[in-house]
Amino acid sequence: MSVMKRLSMIFKSKANKALDKMEDPRETLDYSYQRQLELLQKVRRGVADVATSRKRVELQINQLESQAGKLENQGRQALSAGREDLAREALTRRNGLNTQIADLRIQYNNLQGEEEKLTLASQRLQAKVDSFRTKKETIKATYTAAEAQTRINEAFSGISEEMGDVGLAIQRAEDKTAQMQARAGAIDELLASGALDDFTGQRDDIQAELDRMGGGTDVELELARMKAELGQGPAPKSAIEAGQPGQAAQPSSQPTQQYRQPGEGL
Question: Which of 34, 126, 150, 195 is close enough to 190 for a disulfide, judged by CB 3.0 to 4.6 Å?
Answer without folding.
Answer: 195
